[in-house]
Amino acid sequence: MNKKQKKMLARIFLAAALVILLHFLPVQGILRFLLYMVPYLVIGYDILLKAWKGILNRQIFDESFLMAVATIGAIVIALYEKSGDYNEAVAVMLFYQIGEWFQSYAVGKSRRNISELMDIRPDYANIENDGRLEQVDPDEVEIGSTIVVQPGEKVPIDGVILEGASSLNTSALTGESLPREAKAGDEVISGCINMTGVLKIQTTKEFGDSTVSQILDLVENASSRKSKSEDFISKFAKVYTPAVCYCALALAVIPPLFFTLTGGNPEWVQWIYRALTFLVISCPCALVISIPLSFFAGIGGASNQGVLVKGSNYLETLSQTKYVVFDKTGTLTRGVFEVNDVHHSSIEQAKLLEYAAYAESASSHPIAKSIQQAYGRELDRSRVSDIQEIGGHGITAVVDGVNVAAGNEKLMNKLGIEAIHCHHVGTVVHMALNGKYAGHIVISDDIKATSKEAIAQLKHAGVKKTIMLTGDARRVAESVARDLGIDEVYSELLPSDKVAKVEHILAEKDDREKVAFVGDGINDAPVLSRADIGIAMGAMGSDAAIEAADVVLMDDDPLKIAKAIRISRKCLRIVYQNIYFAIGIKLICLILGALGIATMWLAIFADVGVMVIAILNAIRALFVKKL
C-alpha cells in the first residue's frame, strides 16, 4: 500500500468515525450542519476540487461532477426541509471514496504483481578490472565485453558463457519453476538469475537490445494498445455521462412543471431528490474502471506464464483465433540441427563437409551452424570469396578457387544441375562443385517434446485447423506434420510464398474468425505482421520476428499457445460479464430511481457496490496457472 492509499484510508476511517459519533450527539440546527460538514469535507474535498476544476476547464461531465452535484443537492434538501439528515450526503461521498480506494488498491496490486513477476531489470553489470569486479551501468557495456555474474545476481545482458557452469532461474521470463542448467558455450538471456556457480559471459547484444529491455518495453507499452471493448467503453462514457446529467435535470424540472401547469402538487423537493438519486446511480465507474483493469490483469496473468501480449487489442484478437499457422524450424522443432550423414559424395566426405562449411561460413542459419560444427575446425575466411545467398534456395561461393553451391533441389535446378534424390527424412543440402553434382548432406532437426501435445491442446481449445508452412522438402514436412497431427502442410515455400498462403487463408475464413501465425526466424517477420495475430518464439527467435509479433512466448514452448488462447478467452468472459452486470444493474436502478422507489442508499449500491463487485471479478483475470 503506497502513501496515497494509506492517506485515503485514514480519511475514510476518520470520516466514518465522525459520522458515527455525530449520530449519537444531541445537536440540532446550524451547529449540526457545521459538524456534519467536517466529515463531508474530510472525505470529499478532493472530489469537490476535481469537479470545480472540470467546470473551469469545460470538462464538466465526469464522475466527480456527478458526486458533487448529488451530495451538495442532498445537503441543500436537508437544509430546506430542516430535517438535519445529512447522513445520506456524507455516506454517498464516503462510500464513493471507499470504492475509489478499492479500485486504486486493486490496480496497484495488479501492477505490483506484474512488476514482481517482471522484476528482471538488472541494476548493474560486473566488469573485471585488474582482478577486481567493478559494477557499471548495463547501458555502458559494449558488445563483445566480458561480464561476471555471481550467484544470486541477475544476468544483465544477453551473451555466451565463456567460463563456468550454473543453474539459472528463468521463472520471471518463462513462468517455468524448474531451473535450467547452463555451461560454457551456452547462450544465456538477460533477466535470468544465476543460482549457483560464477559465470563469465561474453555479451552478444547491447543492453538496449537485450531480452530484458525488450520484455520491459513490451509490458510497459501494452496498455497503450486498447481493445475494441475498451474503445467502446471510452466512447460510451463520453456520451453516457452527459446524457444522464440531462436526464436527471429533466427529471428534476419537467414533472413538477407539468403538475404545476395541470393544477397538481409539484413536489419539487421529491423530484429533485429523485434526480439526485438518479445521478448517483448513473455514475459509470464500474465500466470505466473494471474493463481496462480486466485486460491489464489478463496481460499480467499471461506474463506470469511466460506469454507477453503487446496490448489488450491483441488479447481480444487472440480469443477469437480459429486457425493457427506454424513455421516448422525453431517453432515446432528444436532448431538444433545435426549432420547425420553424407550421401553420394564424389569426393571424400570430410572434404565435401569442408567445402560446405566454408560456403556457409557467413550464414548464421541453424543449418549452416550445424555444418560448421560437423566440420569441427576453425574457418579461415580468407579461403572463401564471392558468397551469395539466394533466398529460399541456398548459397554459392568460391572456396580455394572452386565454385561451390550448397542448397536445396531448387538451387540445383536453377544452376542446371541434376540432383540425386535422397530417401532419408531430414533437411538435405545438395552440393555442387564447379557445376557438377558432388553429393548431399543429410541434417536432422528434432521435434520439440511438447509440440504434439500443443497441437492436441489447440484442437481441444476450439481451434478449427492447424497448418504448417515450411521451406523444407515435402517428405520432411509431411513426416513432421503426420507425427504431430497437423491438419494441413505446405512445403518448399519461399518467404513470399508463406505470405501468399496466409493471405489465402485470411480470404477464405469467416470474418469473425482470426488467423494466428507462429514463427521464429527473420524470414517469418512479414507473415507475423500479415496474420491477424503474430506469435513469436522469444528465446531463440530473431529480433525482427519478436518486433513484428503481437505475442511473444518467452520459453519457445508451443504448448503456451493454447494456454494464451485460454487466458484471452477467460479475460474476455470477465469483460463481458462486467459489462452486462454493470449496465443491467444500473438500468434497473435508474428506472427505480426515476419512479421514486430507489433511495440514495440503493444508489450507493448501484454505484460503489457494482464497482467493487466488477473490480473483484476483473482481478480474477490475473490468476491463470490452472488454465
Structure explained in plain terms:
This protein starts with a helix and ends in an 8-residue tail after the last helix. The strands form four sheets. Strands 10-22-21-20-11-18-19 form a seven-stranded mixed beta sheet, sandwiched between helices. It has a six-stranded antiparallel beta sheet with strand order 2-1-3-9-4-7, with no helix packed on it. It has a six-stranded antiparallel beta sheet with strand order 12-17-16-15-14-13. The model has no long low-confidence stretch (mean pLDDT 82). It is built from 20 helices and 22 strands. The protein has 627 residues and is α+β, with helices and mostly antiparallel strands. The longest helix has 36 residues, at 559-594. The radius of gyration is 33 Å and the shape is elongated. Among the domains are: 125-216, Calcium-transporting ATPase, cytoplasmic transduction domain A, CATH 2.70.150.10; 307-328 and 452-566, HAD superfamily/HAD-like (Rossmann fold), CATH 3.40.50.1000; 334-446, Calcium-transporting ATPase, cytoplasmic domain N (3-Layer(aba) Sandwich). Helix 2 (29-56) runs antiparallel to helix 3 (63-81) and helix 4 runs parallel beside helix 9 (285-304). Helix content is 51%, strand content 19%.
Helix content: 40-55%
Q: Strand percentage, roughly?
A: 15-25%
Number of β-strand runs: 22
Could you say which structural class the secondary elements and strand pairing correspond to? alpha+beta
Characterize the main sheet.
7 strands, mixed
Strand order of the largest sheet: 10-22-21-20-11-18-19
